Amino acid sequence: MPKSVKIGYEGVEIDLPLHALYIHRGTEQLIDNIFTLINDGIERHEKVVYIGNERICKLLRKNFRNRISTVSKGVTAKSLVSWLKREYKKLPKIREGLRVLIECNKNHVGLESGLDDLSRQPDYRIFVLCTYDVSTISSLELVETLKTHPYVFVEHLIQPNCFYSRVKQQNWIDTLTGVFNRKYFDRQLHTELQRASRYEHSLAVILMDIDRFSTVNKEFDISTGDSVLQQLARILERSLRSVDILARYGSDEFAALLPETKKAYAKQTAQRILRSVRNHDFFKEDLRVKEISLSIGVVGFPEDAGGVKEMIKKAERSLRKAKRLGGSTVFAYD
């Protein structure tokens, strides 16, 4: 009777019951990876169920025939936990456990916390994988979703360095602002540059620095400075697309990675961010400090740089140029 499940490139064994999160980009990447998990479940004599759109259900039925079950309707985010309990109770004795892969969207954000109840019942042999296409939810929603899952898999389940536990999340999320940190940003920039180069696509990087941020801490206090950073992070989240990656890159610096984006569009996005920051009242009409402004540098691939270090170096050069122009300015590398 299996009490654990092997998952990830290195076949990490995790005790059951288990719920995990798989962050992916696009249907093709999802299918490539869940095939491995479905085959493993079949070999372990588990009941395997896929819950998602009918197109993928049809594809899975064609490939696995009657060895798995598929559900395209009837299981909502709110009914997921009760449905799992019912299905588990109906398991025939020949089954060694229940393995469920469910395609999630923004309606599921925050609702999977109910799965923790199952994880506290050691007699259950349930493995639930919640799959999220990053294009369906915002970065802020993604961060909230991360908090409800003890195990998180990013990009490809079958590739190295994709496994994170709830504790390890702190390695790539900035705890103050809730956005990603520099380490994660650099990692994703490397990945996106490889993808853009392979398919001859564009991408852009926006590097932002708060003008005269030291004055805030001097005139107010550190907690006010922290509040400014948190407010700014929310403004940036609203100004970017769900597929863009936002990170706190330094003490008062933020960086945004915009896949599939030409530099001209990235510059427009940066100017929109500048306007949003100018219009936001960070200090609730307290006039001790002038309102917050940003200096912003923009760099594009492939015209400006081809590697991570070169992209960042030129983005920093553009940011310094914006500073020299007096701040509250966008400068695109030329």
Structure description:
The structure is a single chain. By secondary structure, this protein is of the alpha/beta class. The chain folds into two domains: 4-171, 3-Layer(aba) Sandwich (Rossmann fold); 180-332, 2-Layer Sandwich (Alpha-Beta Plaits). It is built from ten helices and 15 strands. The chain has helices spanning 27-43, 54-64, 80-89, 115-119, 139-146, 182-199, 213-219, 222-239, 263-278, 308-324, and strands at residues 4-7, 12-15, 18-24, 47-51, 69-71, 98-104, 126-133, 151-154, 163-165, 180-181, 203-210, 245-248, 253-259, 294-301, 329-332. Strand 1 (4-7) and strand 2 (12-15) form a beta hairpin. Helix 7 packs antiparallel against helix 8 and helix 8 packs across helix 9.
Number of helices: 10
> Which CATH first-tier class of the largest domain would you pick?
Alpha Beta
Q: Based on helices, strands and strand pairing, what is the structural class?
A: alpha/beta
Topology-level CATH name of the largest domain = Rossmann fold
Unreliable residue stretches: none
- On the 0-100 scale, what is the average pLDDT? 84
Distance between the termini: 63 Å
Q: Got a strand count?
A: 15
The strands making up the biggest β-sheet line up spatially as 5-4-6-7-3-8-9
Radius of gyration: 23 Å
> What's the SSE pattern?
EEEHEHEHEHEHEEEHEHHEEHEHE
Number of domains: 2
Q: Roughly how much helix do the residues carry, as a percent range?
A: 25-40%
The biggest beta sheet is recorded as: 7 strands, mixed
Query: How would the global form be characterised?
Result: elongated
Beta percentage is 15-25%
CATH superfamily of the largest domain: P-loop containing nucleotide triphosphate hydrolases
